[in-house]
Amino acid sequence: MLDSQRLQTLAARTLLDLLARLPLPGVHRLGATLGWLIGRWPNRQRRNALINIALCFPELAPAEQRRLRDASLAEFGKTYLEIAHFWRRPVPEVLGLVREVRGAEHLARPAGRGLIVLSPHHGAWELAGLHLASLGPTTIFYRSQGPFDALIQGGRVRTGARLAPINAAGIRLLLETLQRGDQVGVLPDQEPKADKGAVFAPFFGIPAFTMLLVNRLARRTGAKVVFMFAERLPCGQGFIIHCLPAPPGIDSADEIKAATALNRGIEHCVRLCPAQYLWSYKRFRKRPHWLPKVYTGPLDDHAALAQVARLCLRLAAGQGSGLE
């Protein structure tokens, strides 16, 4: 008999194969419907997305914040269903979904120096990784995904990427790649699980626990740092790859300055198409000691916005920049 893990993997592979048979516009319509359903009743994904949007875009009226939340949930559905195309359709067809690359000149590597490419949870990050690896030798920092690990790894190495686990051995692989003058890919907006190697720095003005790995890699190897994301075009028309230079200070010896620059780079990406960011991710889960938890309380919109209002009052009353 099949054990539970093998059954889960078989079911996931079957679902991917079925979705990959559909045309991409149909997959996106199905994904948008899934996102619409998630947004119809109170649940954590819906609440967390609204909390994050209200914190990061306080200038929007509550109705506008809710509209952006609903649009982001539609994009959330597309993000996860379109993965079937990236992992199961022929590689030339997948890479052909890239209609334009804007800022490609930023990917040029100076002689003897490696390239650190940062792809936030924004747009089609799986496609961004496949596109990056198709350009040359690439090592991608990767967190194990339990029973689906083999399936995910198989999808992510289709264009030649090498995967480095998120541990000391994986960091050594990243260093070796950069020292050879090749490129590495990192998701820069994951919240580190350990206190070591991270600091609080502003993300849209809110203290966010931010990794220092990128700063340390850049300082140690002299590698160039670039941001990249794949913007999803409407109606399944394909994707635009955006490449943006990292803000000044990302390689600073001042850790707060470096982390602030990293978050500013993510903000630049998000502002180009805000609905395509993964707003349901608990980006502010870890808090400074003087701030309350963010993702708590009832699941309805009124309670979520009231939670944001209370947090903003605490921020306004905080010392200095609120990062002390």
UniProtKB/TrEMBL annotation:
Pfam families: Lip_A_acyltrans (PF03279). InterPro entries: LipA_acyltrans (IPR004960). It is found in: Cell inner membrane. The keyword Metal-binding does not apply. GO terms for cellular component: plasma membrane. One of its GO terms (biological process) is glycolipid biosynthetic process. Its main location: membrane. The keyword Transit peptide does not apply. Keywords: Acyltransferase, Cell inner membrane, Cell membrane, Membrane, Transferase. One of its GO terms (molecular function) is acyltransferase activity. This is Lysophospholipid acyltransferase family protein.
